[in-house]
Predict the structure.
Amino acid sequence: MCNCGHDSLVPQIGIITGITQETPDVKTFRVNAPDGGKLFEHMPGQCAMVCVPGVSEGMFSITSSPTNKEFQEFSIKKCGILTEQLHSLQVGDEVTVRGPYGNNFPVETEFKGKNLLFIAGGIGLAPLRSVINYCLDNRENYGRIDILYGSRSADDLVKLKEIQEVWMKAPNVNVYLTIDREQEGWDGHVGFVPTYLKEIGFSTDCIGIVCGPPIMIKFVLQGLKEMGFTDEQIYTTLELRMKCGIGKCGRCNIGSKFVCKDGPVFRFDQIDELPNEY
Amino acid sequence: MYKIAIKDLNTLFSKIAEEQELILPIKKAGQYNFGVYEEGCDIDGILTNKTVKSGKDAFFPQFETLYNVRKKITPADELENGEEAANTKIRTKLTIEAEALKDKDFVIFGMRACDVKGVEVLDQVFLTDPVDNYYKARREHGIIVALACHEPEESCFCTVFGIDPADPSKSKADVATWIVGEELCWKPITEKGEALTKKIESLLASADDSAVDAEIANITSIMDKLPNTKLSLEGWGKGKTDEKFNSDVWQKIYTPCLGCGTCTFVCPTCQCYDIKDYTTKDGIQRYRCWDSCMYSDFTLMAGGQNRTSQVQRFRQRFMHKLVYFPDRYDMYSCVGCGRCVDKCPQSLNIVKVIKAFENEQKEAGANV
Amino acid sequence: MSMNEEKTEFRPLIVAFCCNWCSYAGADLAGSSRLSYPADVKIIRVPCSGRVNPMFILRAFERGADGVIICGCHPGDCHYSTGNYYARRRMTLLFSMLDYMGVENGRTRVEWCSAAEGVKFSNTMNEFCEKVKSLGKSVRLGDIRCKD
Amino acid sequence: MQGLIDRLTALLSDGTVARVIGWKKGDMAYNPEPHMFETAESLKDFVYDGFCGANLSKMMIEASKLEGKTAVCLKPCDTYSFNQLIREHRVVRENAYIIGVGCRGKLDIEKIKKGNKGITSISGTELDGSDDIKIETIYGDKNISYKDALLDRCHVCKGKDHMIFDEVWGESKDTADQERFAEVEKIEAMTPEEKFAFFRNELSKCIRCNACRNVCPACSCRKCIFDNTKFDAQQKANVVSFEERMFHIIRAFHVAGRCTDCGECSRVCPEGIPLHLFNRKFIKDIDKFYGEFQAGKDPEAQSPLTDFTFEDIEPGERG
């Protein structure tokens, strides 16, 4: 499961080869190995520990798709000491990266041949983006793809350009965007994700993949269930404080599971079995 | 089976220490703790007194360096033009120097059967994929000389977890030893143990295997008399998450808990750790140190999650030892060494937790 | 003096916490008056001597300082009226504690030095450096991780 | 003890208090635990004997936020801590009903265990018990004098009077028979090398479990500086570095002028480090430099470190 090389706690050096300012507080970092290649191969949904030495280390989901053979990308929202430091870095700076850690979305098994419904809020798009792009690059393996994405405002929509230019134009893909409050220059939908979800009313012939702030997940889950989705049909990724990434340091332990090793991707019926501590 | 007079132990220790590092309980400022043997260190009473911390330090030290990072920062204006090619302008250049793994044999003397079982528990965690190489190297080079408990204490309850304190040769130790009168009986178990024995053979006299029988019988009879060895683990173990997690007993018993880390640090099986950076003169040292699930900052995230109250943290520790760990590795991660029983500032401990649940069950049964 | 000798001679590392209003200006004056004091004195400017947390002093020692000196306004002259009075009590207790733990008293010092006292500043620093030099390298509070 | 339980039961039953903070019988002869009793029925497990050393005043920080009054059993020395907490606005006096329980010194189980393993029962430790305590072990029985088994702190007892109380139960005894600052003076007389060796020897045992901090009634910050991830202070490394010394100096400094010398830090230390020696040094210095001061004696008194005079001695002077 873990292809992190000889030593699971010693990282590799990653060089930042590109930075995109997505929203006022989200930047996407493109990371390469120092010799230019990719750091490692990963699967959609997996995470990696990114570290600014001397500051701190944190688990971030890899937002680029495995089908991208050139680099890895991390979309990171500025909200703490580490992320603030990361945002101050420039192209050419080096960070340390170890991973990939955790499991992945079952894109090659359960998802295959199915219709997929992605529901994301804010920075919650980051882990889903790798899945979406993976599916789009292997389009023939999947059925209809619906993407419902909402954010606080139009400025806070991550990867808007890619959404408009790639996703919206892809065959048999429907993208629904929404923002929380009315805003000048926005002619799209306004309203919270869970409400919009009910308005659209998806049929239950698909697999739901949800990621966003906990409160959104809670209401989206409710909405999906009202529509007739079962727990086995819905996937999400969890996030907890992590230090080792390999299921040993004990932080992300919930019940007998470690989010870093057994997760971060869980099906809702699996989550139901865990003690309510996440 | 071999033997050596207890009064000659110092000779034995210095002989062992000649060839490799020797870790053993040492009396220091009134307390017994495992430490590295040095000429003249105080070994008075180390055979009969329980150490404050278990010997897990020898394999999983409280503090260890993982690697060092050297940072070379080049200001942008000092960059040569050539370097600016291909979108890669060098600013902060890093080099990583991983700490060398343990590559020399060492001997740890005086672990009890419970301590050795504790190492077995740590093995489950650190040696499953992905393997922790720092731990593995220590484990491979460590030679455990275990000692039968001559005088078990009232806080001991290792037999509850199927550990035999009287016969360490049943444990994963390399050498088992017993105190028999004025002598220490010495029995190599594994190849590593045989090799060590060979090195010190000149100091040992041979003895009959039956020499330790009386000692084993004696210890076993003492264990029977101890109050905590009757503890029942019924209702704990695999698959009891829902039942135990949602019990309201936790709320009733946790109040005295201070949220200090004493129980976790003296525990032979607690393995939670923290990874932190320390900026030194010429680089950044990344180290790992023990951490405790009892601390409020253990799982704290920017959003304030999770396990925000002491009762949750308290529950986590015992659930982990008695339910989650069995779920995952098919063994309890408590070995009944009784250290938390001795050392908790508020006299709260795993025995009281188990008993509280037992009482609750009884009361519930009586009410039905 | 050859390079070789320079290496072997012990030069103490001194950390000086100077309050913004008096002592830092005093150091300035010492500089502009071309009074000399050893280059081994590293000045850290603080708003007031009352800002100096005991932890600063311990951290300085931990990270390799051989002596720590705190300079503030003369009692009665504090920019914030009373900051230096509090600092005086705190430092009295802290220095006494350090002495109690076996850190020679000569390694710590508090000196009141006004903006007009460039001479006093430079003399104090010279004196303090000599004192610390005579005590030798600080070995008791250093963190081994910071050793060369 | 039955008298005390009856009184507490009455207080709970007539609604004077909503809960009682006291000690609950342990599962062994010597380990009662602090406990919050909410029903009269649960008081059957209440116990008060020589092993009830815990200072319960800190539990009142949380308890005084609850609805209704809380009865709390405080020994004479605990009342100093309670007063200090009032001074720092950490407890609400009106929400507490203080039962000043008598004390004839508390017992140190470590001292009793020395040479007495496998204890099955200990008798004679009650407040009205005998001068000797009887220890039964699976290896044999033994009598030792109550006085020899006292905690170190009780040998420098601050006196038998409760500083604050609503009612008093039981007789107290001043157990002081040693000079309070004798240990401190002994260290002060050492050479720097000896002092350093002494403290290094003791503090190198520290495992940074934080029990001393978490039990200390003066350490009542909601977020300790040593738990602050945003600051360099949170270093959990020990053993090889200066950290543990730094931690103890700073901790002692943070409670200087507020420490009532209740001795809980030394009592709870799993490694038996005499941590009170730091606090007591500060107390001694404060007494000497700024006049005698006992924290918690008077809840109105100004703390020496938030006070000054124009004539204070200069740092480094010996007073």
